[in-house]
Amino acid sequence: MDRLIDLLEDRGLDAILLYSDGEHSIARPSALEYFCGVTPLANRNCAIVTPEGSCTFLVDLPRDVDRIARHTGIEDVRGTNAFVSELVAVVRELEVDTALGLVGIDRMDQAVYQAIEETVEQVHSLDEPVDALAAVKTDADLETFHELGRLADVGFTAAYDALSPGIKEYELSAEIEYAMRAAGSEDNFNLLSSGSHNQLMHGPTERVIRAGDTVLFEISPVIDGLVLQICRTISVGTPDRTLVEKFSLLKEAMANTKSMLRAGAPAKVIAERMNAVFRDAGYAEYCEPPYMRTRGHEFGIGPIGMAIDEGTDTELREGMVLVVHPNQYVPETGYLSLGDPIEITADGFETLVDTPARLFTKEVL
Questions:
Q1: Which of 91, 111, 133 is the last residue of a domain?
Q2: Which residues are paired to 216 by β-bridges?
Q3: Which has more pLDDT, 40 or 149?
Q4: Of the chain's two ends, which shows fewer C-beta atoms within 10 Å, N or C?
Q5: What domain range is 340 assigned to?
Q6: DSSP, residue by residue, 180-246
Q7: Mean pLDDT of the chain
């Protein structure tokens, strides 16, 4: 909240309004949820923050008021069945008449936006600057990310223990989900893929996993709207020489990249170092779409902040949390997966999981 107040003072705004349409998809993170620490249930919700530090939370579902107040600690939480007219009344009550910053304009229906536009002289979109605020984490955020790293390890351990020929992908995914939920994860976003030549990772299917398969995992636990991710590959049975050889390229790309991670380095160095390994091995064309998209991303408001490719000039800063993943399609083996979540520190970086960055083998008895 202090960061929001600094932002509105720097921009000369009367207030900042954070808006949510109640959707809480991992692909569309909510700034309202991030800053207020609650997931609203209504289709129309907003919090208005003033330079004095006051916060008024308006929800289009009166029965949700007590829960929101309890979870956020915000004293002024109001429920209404007439959201638009009540929003206008609150804006006028707070004497917001000159300039209002909006976060979440793309989530607003026409009636809400039009009412704001007719009530305030100037409306400013603040989605990008507010996303930037979340790039450097608070101490509380970092504590949560360390806990998420533990949960990601729990998820992968559950995957490894449950994996055997005959299990279906969705059964394996259920074991991961159960283990992380039992360990404290509030939500999970898990992708996997199995087969002798994987094309990509996807949601779990009814496919039966067989001896000789390569199984890919993207495991992402969630706490308080924050997400972390680990990517790993398991060979069901002893991997052949080609799989070991090609996976060693991912390990090399990861090691070369981590040697460059420090505050002040441009984020694009991650993609440059990874791509260099695969290009030198003769896979230059497979470092481009449709085979590859990014070499990692920052965790901002929700799971995906800054995407990292060779054009990403943003400097890494102390307190950033990223996933770096030299995931790669190789024509001889199919898609392979390896990714670590890391925190940029004052003197380099810290890997937030204990699971080794290597090719795992699950022996078949």
A1: 133
A2: 193, 233
A3: 149
A4: C
A5: 139-362
A6: HHHHT-SEEEEEEEEESSB---BS--SPBP-TT-EEEEEEEEEETTEE--EEEEEEESSPPHHHHHH
A7: 93
